[in-house]
Amino acid sequence: MALPAAAAAAYQSIASMAGASTPSVPSLSPPQPGANFSDFLSGAIKDSIGTITQGEQAATAQVSGSANIVDVVNSVNAAELTLDTVVAVRDKVVAAYQSIMTMPI
Question: What span, in angstroms and rounded, lies between the C-alpha atoms of 16 and 14?
Answer without folding.
Answer: 5
